Amino acid sequence: MTNSVAFIGLGAMGYRMAAHLPKSFAQVMVWNRNFAKAEQHAAKYGTQAVTIEQATQADIIFSCLPTSAEVESIITQYPPKSGAIWVDCTSGVPESAVKMASFLQAQGAHFLDAPVSGQTIGAENGTLTVMIGGDAQAFERAYAAIEPFGGLIKHVGESGAGFAVKAVNNMLLAANLWATAEGFTTLKANGVDLNSALECINASSGKSAVTEMVLPQRILNREFPLTFALPLLAKDTGIALALAQQAKLPTPLLSLTQNLIQTANLTSEPDSDFSAAVKLYESWSQIEIK
Amino acid sequence: MTNSVAFIGLGAMGYRMAAHLPKSFAQVMVWNRNFAKAEQHAAKYGTQAVTIEQATQADIIFSCLPTSAEVESIITQYPPKSGAIWVDCTSGVPESAVKMASFLQAQGAHFLDAPVSGQTIGAENGTLTVMIGGDAQAFERAYAAIEPFGGLIKHVGESGAGFAVKAVNNMLLAANLWATAEGFTTLKANGVDLNSALECINASSGKSAVTEMVLPQRILNREFPLTFALPLLAKDTGIALALAQQAKLPTPLLSLTQNLIQTANLTSEPDSDFSAAVKLYESWSQIEIK
Amino acid sequence: MTNSVAFIGLGAMGYRMAAHLPKSFAQVMVWNRNFAKAEQHAAKYGTQAVTIEQATQADIIFSCLPTSAEVESIITQYPPKSGAIWVDCTSGVPESAVKMASFLQAQGAHFLDAPVSGQTIGAENGTLTVMIGGDAQAFERAYAAIEPFGGLIKHVGESGAGFAVKAVNNMLLAANLWATAEGFTTLKANGVDLNSALECINASSGKSAVTEMVLPQRILNREFPLTFALPLLAKDTGIALALAQQAKLPTPLLSLTQNLIQTANLTSEPDSDFSAAVKLYESWSQIEIK
Amino acid sequence: MTNSVAFIGLGAMGYRMAAHLPKSFAQVMVWNRNFAKAEQHAAKYGTQAVTIEQATQADIIFSCLPTSAEVESIITQYPPKSGAIWVDCTSGVPESAVKMASFLQAQGAHFLDAPVSGQTIGAENGTLTVMIGGDAQAFERAYAAIEPFGGLIKHVGESGAGFAVKAVNNMLLAANLWATAEGFTTLKANGVDLNSALECINASSGKSAVTEMVLPQRILNREFPLTFALPLLAKDTGIALALAQQAKLPTPLLSLTQNLIQTANLTSEPDSDFSAAVKLYESWSQIEIK
């Protein structure tokens, strides 16, 4: 039985995700490196700002951090108690999930890789897609704790499978983003009105989450709101590519995508949203996608 | 005022599109190279099977043929009368649209490039997306004639703009298809269940018409039903690429996509559906996407 | 028998090529759009600066112009006399060679596409490689006139074959250039001394004209001397790619090369040498190849 | 002072390399997993077939094995004595060189990564290019022992630098190979005689070791003699790519090259020479490069 839950990492996503937990749990501990943010969260949502030592002794510990490196660092310094389940919502590295699952298993605890999709709006509304790898029984036990912020909550395989699905999802996002940039620039260069073209394509077989959401809400309006940072997308495409390479798979299109996104990342302004990757392409074509 | 309409080209798409016209027009002429098909259509839908000379003298002439070459050949041999509007639903070449529009204008007639998206099911249901380039007034006049088989009917620009949007739409379809094949193969090679992954991705930012429809309905079930032939997709990606090259645009991702689809086309079995392009990739990875 | 020769186009290449002709011919006419250059050539090398009308009436007419468009324009305005041979040393378009050969044949004259390789130093020394397409007998007759500036003079096929070989040669140059830039940057990023690496690679299987000449003489020394302009290399890679596309060949590596060179071209400073294409890559990697 | 040398790994390269050592050393030990080959070498060249325990106690130990994994396995099982220098001629992984150098340093010994280029003919003639990473003093001491089979012997940097240069060399070989295949196929599809084209390109800026040697000696003659196996080239391109990725460098052209070579590797017949990678491309184009 779950008596206590903790949430570690109150970034743009984690802050909103943790806010849903008090609906289901009497005691919700939160911790953040910048501790003021934890205190702010406690004041606003009725959670408790605690030390990292306390947080890691909860029955269920959530983490949502920039990369697997930070997660590993905390887990190995502050291992959870026996019987605990660590639910890591970071967009992490599958290999790291395997390692952490094995490390926690040796202590009688469990590690679930449970990355989320849906961005800040999904975190806000508690409708995130959660793709989960790891022990099936631990998944069953943790399900109710995930539910407050989850829409679709899906067990996709062994440890690392959740991270793998997230990485491939984001790789497809990246591929669709760049292909869309090239395609719409081609249309504009040929005198086609982009809004009319977008309406047609969104009613046709070329549509994607990029044409339905990213292009109209971030690019055509030139807003590029920072909700998912470009360096994180570059990291995720790298994770997906590493998965292919470990399996000795040729992936020409995904490799090129990763190269283009990484180039965009290296040449972008600080604090760029992932959608701003198209600005690199605009600097080549001298055509704004608007 | 439109008194007569004709439909030229009763292939998988045209046959179904023309079937909707009698709802709105008393007289609907149809013509097909294999004339038996025209007679069958007449018997079934109350249209009239006529000669090509008669068909091309209608007020509004629709054509839906394999490529712009066939359309040009008919138009130049059998030019329509003054005041007529030729609505070409072929997935054609923008340059050809410009040429035909100019040729018909010299005769007091109009040419609209009006390719459709939605496949045979959309043609069946009369819900096709129709993206139209050419004279705005001709578009207004032709609108009612297009409505019986159209869902979204959109004027997107000058002559050629309709073909351009269609070509780019299909290029995006091709890019998404190949990226999805690489991505899902990567997941399978890493032990992830593809159906669970698909459910997650379709609730996430990596989704596209490929993940929502093509992958479950054509690939994962190993059916690859022939409704849109691979050589036609290869042709369309070539049209999109030519548009980029004429504009001197670099399009690394679309170029690679076109190369991959063309390779799939060259090495595929006859009568392959476009979705069977992934079989080339499967021959590389030795992993079936299922 | 050849009594008179003319040279049209005294650019960096043509000026030096024409300078060798007086060794073999009593009368050498020269013409240049900027006529002062023709007069300067006449004064320096004992040629005769003449009008375009006169130049095009020689027994053998050489041309060396930026693109096939300029050549076509002159040939069609000032067609040569019957029996003449037009030797076009431009890096031109194969299709144009076929057209010009047919146009001249109708007038009893011949067109040879005869692009050259070897850069200004080869033109200076009269050791250019000349790759020639067109009528074999015309090639035999023109051979002696080409010899003064040619090293290897080779008949490679029908009209257009010379241009095709040149375009593919330059495409390989472009591919080797970009691959070398990526490879040497990778070495530098890993702490390897580039000059030592270069010495090893030039004694190994990875060597090319780029590692043997372009890298040490233009890039590592940061000189990028303008002897072959980047826009011309971009044009040539476009010609090579068009040849592949007309043959429906997939060429993933050459397509990507052309896209990268075209991007470099679009984003380069004016008057950039072809070797300066690597500066685009340097702007991505933030590492200078030196 | 070097009193004894040993050579571990008598494959196609090692067998010939070790044959030169008796010129300079009184005592040359050899070891091979298939020991009969060591005995054959001893009988033919006056070396001594010894146990692995004996071989690894020489003053200078050479190794030439398929991959770094085999080298690591032997070194860690049979570490050399203090003062010894291990010269690893494998085409290995830079990271492994760093690890082995550190491991041996802790024992008072040295590890030099010293991969070779020049193929079996260079090994036969003792003219191999040897690119060496590691401690500069160890390099000086080992120089004389390398000389019998070396032509150019070059210190290129710290541990791993030798492997890095070799990997990048082979990546450039791979890129040039594939680009050449696409380019020459394009020429053939356009009716150009490949031997004439080759002669021109080898006298021009597009030439490389591929056009000068691989194409005429292995491909155009359809012999594809097995001297450097395709799986090893695929491995080497993977090493080069990993170097780029560790440095976060985008390398679009090298990535595509690696994907194509890996695809060729996955789909090739057993015992294919690296040059047979072009057969994959031939299966796409349906055109033999001959």
From TrEMBL, chains A, B, C, D:
Q: Which InterPro entries match?
A: 3-OH-isobutyrate_DH-rel_CS, 6-PGluconate_DH-like_C_sf, 6PGD_dom2, 6PGDH_NADP-bd, HIBADH-like_NADP-bd, HIBADH-related, NAD(P)-bd_dom_sf
NAD among keywords:
yes
The record places domain 3-hydroxyisobutyrate dehydrogenase-like NAD-binding at 160-281
Q: What GO molecular function terms would the record report? A: NAD binding; NADP binding; oxidoreductase activity
Q: Which Pfam families match?
A: NAD_binding_11, NAD_binding_2
**Which BP terms does GO give this entry?**
organic acid catabolic process
KW Oxidoreductase (keyword) present: yes
6-phosphogluconate dehydrogenase NADP-binding domain boundaries = 5-157
The protein's superkingdom reads Bacteria
- Write out the entry's keywords from A to Z: NAD, Oxidoreductase
Active-site residues are 166
For this entry, the protein name equals 3-hydroxyisobutyrate dehydrogenase
Give the UniProt family note.
Answer: Belongs to the HIBADH-related family.
